[in-house]
Amino acid sequence: MAPVSLLSELILATALAAVLIFNWRIAWQPAWLRIGVAAGLFCLFTLLILRVAGMPAAPMLDSDTRIATWQRGLIALWWLLGARLTVGILPLILWQKRESSQPKIASDLLAGLTYLTAVLAIVNFVFDLPVRALLATSGIIAVVLALALQNTLADVFAGIAVGIEHPYVVGDRIGIDGSFEGVIVQINWRSIHVRTDGNDIVTIPNSLISKSRVINRSRPSTRRDDSVQVACDSTARPDLVLEYLRHAALLTPKLLSSPAPGTSLARIGARTNSYDISFSVAHTDHLGAAKSALLGQVLRQFHYHGIRLVNPGAMSTPIGPVQVSLGPLETLPPEQLLGDIPLFRELSPKQRVDLSTKMIKRHLEAMATLASQGGTLSSLIVVASGVLEASRTIRDHSHVVGRLGPGDHFGELGLITGAPNAGTILALTRCIIFELRKEDLDPVLAAEPGLAEAFEASVRRGQAFLARDEAAATYAQPGPPAQFLAQIRAFFKT
Question: What average pLDDT does this structure show over 178-205?
């Protein structure tokens, strides 16, 4: 019969082992606190093991079979709990966060080796079984398994290389061999999972992706550079076309101003010339909308400057009016400009022609101020060419409201109500505008109730927009100005 003191110490060691196991089930925060508590409990457990069974590598077991079995169980727990503590410390040593979404292949590999060592130690020291024969047998089994699992092992070792190099992490957008792009949602030992833009999940083995050309769209930043190509009639002067393409880029929301968009003549031909517009967006998600908006602005510029847009492959029907010779910053006739403005749809073609004869053509140089905030502007301004920028200063904070290009108009708020200018209008490029004065427009407004109602509706929308803009500027944090073309159109036109 074992002494009472030994039984008491065995019971205490068993209870302490249960507490140590329970400690790993508690989500101590921060992680080092859980490790510290576990280390302290393990030290106490080690002292008790030394008292009841001696060294775990050379245990001294009691003659009583039941007590010896108890001792073996506690020593086996000591080896397993020691391995568990070592595995818990590994992430701290390797500077890996437990909640990280990155693959912990290195720590997982070391953890597996640690547990394997603990199991072999239990077999050898606790149960006194020959380990050499076991290792020899396991070596033969390992060779057989390696031959049967060549592809899987290739994926595993490729995954280890990924874990060491970290060429991409969960959340990165990658492109693979130019075939598809997507966002990485999971990385494991065997494969990576990629969510494509079509919301499909693609599983790619690590051995395959290690041999592929992978483009990481998220590093060194999420910025995406791209370009579009357009072709137009070769009779259009290249220097003017390049200028109009630059205007189109300035009028396109989401294009970054740094690096600035660039334009170049890509190819010349007997009937068509091709041009490239290079640009950058902040994120890949913006790329599709930015391309669509940019091409729409190109169509707008070509339409208002009489340039034929041509498909170089099919030589399709020209879009817009044909004009063989272009002068510097030449524009559509005033009556055609009025016909494109929704405000004047109520007028007959003859009335628009009569009204266009009263429009005054003006040229603005780049960086010239057309209207200042707080000043008065009692005319309707129609933009025929170039890019204008509207900005407001509210409580000493200036912000850009939007940009205007060919076909846009403004000034009806001051023309109808006599209110001072709500913002400043600056010419970003050389511009051509047409001015329609109040004294020339008033007789038409009086004679055409539909036109007067359209102007009043536009003024109400402008006043509502100003109220929202002022409220937003009051509470918003200062930041980089945005280009809200839709807002400026809602403000200045119907």
Answer: 86
